[in-house]
Amino acid sequence: MTFEESASILNISSKNPTIDEIKNAYKKMAKKYHPDIYKEQDSNEKMAIINKAYETLKSSFE
């Protein structure tokens, strides 16, 4: 997953997001699509994609 794809998944429009922007976007998406809240069959898949996007973006700061 590329940086751009990850940013798109987390709805980040900035080309150079800060770590705080990434964390806030992740938390917002996690609250919306967490399997305990989002009761669709694909909730685990969506959350896995969100987690992967977050890890990809976060790794650019390490």
Automatic annotation (TrEMBL):
Keywords: Chaperone. GO terms for cellular component: cytoplasm. PROSITE patterns: DNAJ_2. Coiled coil: none annotated. One of its GO terms (biological process) is protein refolding. GO terms for molecular function: unfolded protein binding. Pfam families: DnaJ. Residues 5-62 form the J domain. The keyword Chaperone applies. InterPro entries: DnaJ_domain, J_dom_sf. The keyword DNA damage does not apply. PANTHER family: DNAJ HOMOLOG 1, MITOCHONDRIAL-RELATED (PTHR43096:SF52). This is J domain-containing protein. The lineage of its organism: Bacteria, Bacillati, Mycoplasmatota, Mycoplasmoidales, Mycoplasmoidaceae.
